[in-house]
Specification:
By secondary structure, the chain is an alpha/beta fold. Helix content is 45%, strand content 7%. The strands form two sheets. Strands 5-4-3-6-7 form a five-stranded mixed beta sheet, with helices on both faces. A two-stranded antiparallel ribbon has the order 1-2. A hairpin with a 7-residue loop joins strand 4 and strand 5. The radius of gyration is 35 Å and the shape is extended.
C-alpha cells in the first residue's frame, strides 16, 4: 500500500517537472520576442533622433564609425615614420578688394577727392604742390529697389487733307506693347519680381506686402496673388504646355513627388493630402523640370501626365509609378544605400560597427559611386560601355552578398529592411545598366524638388487648387531657368514682356522663348565662372 502511494507521488512530481520545463521554454520564447521588440523600438528611436538632430547626408565618415576602436583600426605599424620636409610652391597672389569676375560687368561710379586751390600750398615752403599718384579704394554699393510709375502714351494720327476734301479720314494709332494683365497697373517687371521673391527666394506674400509698405506703396497680398495667378494662366501656361509636349519626346526622365497641404477658401485644410509632382529630363538632354499639382498621390496622375512617353523612368520605389505605361522603371541606388546608413545610425554607441553587415554593404556602394564619379565627364555612350565592364561586376558581387546574408538577419530589423529593399527592387536598381542616359541615383529630381519643399510652408497664397496650379507652373519656369544657367527674375521678366504681344500661329511659335533657346538676351544669362 505504501509503495503504491509512493509511485503516485513520483508520477505527480514527474508531471510537475515537465510542466515547469514547458513553462520555462514558453517564457524564454516570449522573452526573446520581447527583446526583439525592444531592440526594434530602440532602433526606431535612435533613427528618429538621428533624423531630427543628425546630419541629413547619407555619408558615414570612417573616422566616425567607431570612436572606441579608432586607435586599433587606424594603426599601421608597418608604415615608416613621417619625415620633415620643406615644401616650396608658387601661387598667384590674391588682390585685395573687389577682384571677382562677377563684378566685371557692373557699372563703375568714380568719386574723385582732390585738394582745393587754396589747400595745394606746400606746408614747408609755400610752393605749389603737384599730383604725384592716386590711391584707389573700391567698394560694392547697393541701391534699394526703386518704385516708379511708367506712363504709356501713344499718339493717334489722322489726315487733315482727307478731312478738308471730305474724303474718308484714316486714323492710325502708334503701336504699343500689350499689358501683361489688362486693366491692371502691374507691369512685367513687377509681376516677375513678385514671382521671383516667392518662388526663387521663398518669401511669402505677407512679407512682400510689408516690404512694399516700406517703399511707401500700399499693395495688398490679395492683389499680388490675383496678379500671379492671372499672369500664370494667361502667359506662362502655354509655354509650360509646350515644354510638357517636348518632355514626352525624351527617352529618359526623372520623377519625384512631395506632399503638401491645400486650404479651402475658408482657410481650413482639406481632408486629403495633396501632392506636388516633379518630372524632369536627363542632364544630357534639354534641361527642363516641370511641376504638377494633384490632389492625391494616386499613380493615375503620373500615368496621365506621362501619357505618350516611352522610355526609362527613374524614381524611388513608390509603386504608383507602375501605373505609367510603356516605361522601364529605374531605381535609385542612393535610396538603397540610405537604408544601410539608417541601420548604422540606429545602432548603440558601443556597437562594433566595423564588423556589421551594414558596413560591409556600404563598401559595395562606395565602389559604385567612385566608379560613377570617375565617368561623369564622359559621353553617355562611353559611360554605358564602362558600366558593362566595371559596374556590372560590382552589382553581381553585391547580389551574391545579399543572398548569403539575408537568411542570417532578422527581417524586421533596420538591417533586414535594408537588405529586403535591395532584393525586392533589384530589377529596378540594375536597370541603370540598360540605357546610356540612366543615372545611378534619382538625386537630380530630389535636388530640384527641394526649392518647393523649402517654400511649401508659405505655399498656398490663394488657398485653393488654382493657386497651387499657378505655383506649379511658376516653379517650373524658375527651376528650368536655373538648370539652363539663367537668372530666374530676368527670364520671367523677358517672358512676361514678350508673350502678351506674341501671336501663336504655329506649334513652335514659343520655341525661341524656351529656357535653352540661344536667342534669349544676354540679360537673362548668368555669368559663367571661368
Amino acid at each position: 500500500m505504501s509503495r503504491l502511494i509512493e509511485n503516485k507521488e513520483l508520477q505527480q512530481n514527474t508531471v510537475s517537472i515537465d510542466d515547469l520545463m514547458n513553462e520555462n521554454t514558453k517564457l524564454q520564447h516570449e522573452l526573446e520576442i520581447a527583446n526583439a521588440k525592444i531592440r526594434w523600438y530602440e532602433e526606431q528611436f535612435k533613427l528618429n533622433q538621428a533624423k531630427k538632430f543628425g546630419k541629413s547626408s547619407d555619408a558615414i565618415p570612417p573616422e566616425q564609425i567607431s570612436f572606441i576602436n579608432e586607435v586599433e583600426i587606424t594603426a599601421r605599424p608597418e608604415l615608416d615614420e613621417p619625415q620633415i620636409e620643406k615644401i616650396v610652391y608658387e601661387r598667384k597672389k590674391q588682390k585685395r578688394g573687389i577682384n571677382k569676375e562677377s563684378y566685371e560687368d557692373l557699372r563703375v561710379e568714380t568719386i574723385t577727392y582732390a585738394l582745393e586751390e587754396g589747400e595745394k600750398d606746400c606746408p614747408s615752403c609755400g610752393g605749389d604742390m603737384h599730383e604725384m599718384s592716386k590711391e584707389i579704394r573700391k567698394e560694392l554699393r547697393v541701391k534699394p529697389a526703386e518704385v516708379y510709375i511708367v506712363e504709356h502714351v501713344r499718339n493717334v494720327y489722322t489726315c487733315r487733307t482727307c478731312q478738308s476734301n471730305g474724303d474718308s479720314v484714316p486714323v492710325i494709332t502708334a503701336p504699343m506693347p500689350a499689358p501683361v494683365i489688362p486693366g491692371s497697373i502691374a507691369s512685367a517687371s513687377v509681376l516677375a519680381y513678385l514671382m521671383h521673391q516667392k518662388y526663387a527666394t521663398a518669401m511669402p506674400l505677407y512679407r512682400q506686402e510689408q516690404v512694399w509698405k516700406e517703399f511707401g506703396i500700399a499693395l495688398s497680398r490679395q492683389n499680388m496673388a490675383n496678379w500671379i495667378i492671372r499672369g500664370s494662366e494667361l502667359w506662362l501656361e502655354p509655354l509650360y504646355d509646350r515644354m510638357h509636349h517636348l518632355l514626352l519626346k525624351e527617352s529618359f526622365l526623372h520623377a519625384d513627388e512631395s506632399p503638401m497641404r491645400v486650404l479651402t477658401k475658408d482657410g481650413k485644410p482639406t481632408d486629403s493630402k495633396a501632392y506636388m509632382w516633379l518630372y524632369m529630363s536627363s542632364k544630357y538632354s534639354r534641361q527642363m523640370a516641370l511641376y504638377e499639382y494633384q490632389p492625391s498621390r494616386s499613380g493615375k496622375h503620373a500615368k496621365t501626365f506621362l501619357s505618350g512617353f516611352s522610355g526609362f523612368l527613374q524614381t524611388d520605389d513608390y509603386s504608383g509609378y507602375n501605373s505609367v505605361e510603356d516605361v522601364t522603371r529605374v531605381g535609385c541606388v542612393a535610396h538603397a544605400r540610405r537604408y544601410y546608413t539608417d541601420a548604422l545610425k540606429a545602432l548603440p554607441k558601443d556597437a562594433p560597427i566595423e564588423s556589421t553587415y551594414a558596413h560591409e554593404a556600404l563598401k559595395y556602394f562606395k565602389e559604385m559611386f567612385i566608379l560613377e564619379d570617375s565617368w561623369k565627364e564622359l559621353e553617355p555612350s562611353k559611360r554605358h560601355k564602362l558600366r558593362q565592364e566595371q559596374l556590372r561586376p560590382v552589382f553581381e558581387a553585391y547580389l551574391s552578398w545579399l543572398k548569403k546574408v539575408q537568411p542570417k538577419v532578422v527581417p524586421k530589423s533596420s538591417l533586414g529592411k535594408a537588405i529586403n529593399y535591395s532584393m525586392s527592387n533589384w530589377d529596378y536598381l540594375t536597370n541603370v545598366l540598360e540605357h546610356e542616359m540612366c543615372e545611378l541615383t534619382n538625386n537630380r529630381a530630389e535636388r530640384s524638388i527641394k526649392p518647393f519643399v523649402i517654400g511649401k510652408k508659405n505655399f498656398l497664397f490663394a488657398k485653393s487648387p488654382s493657386g497651387a496650379k499657378a505655383s506649379a507652373i511658376i516653379y517650373s519656369m524658375v527651376e528650368s531657368a536655373r538648370l539652363n544657367g539663367l537668372s530666374p527674375y530676368y527670364y520671367l521678366k523677358h517672358l512676361l514682356e514678350q508673350l502678351p504681344s506674341l501671336k501663336l500661329t504655329e506649334e513652335d511659335s514659343l520655341d525661341h522663348l524656351l529656357p535653352w533657346s540661344a536667342s534669349l538676351p544676354e540679360e537673362c544669362r548668368l555669368k559663367k565662372k571661368s
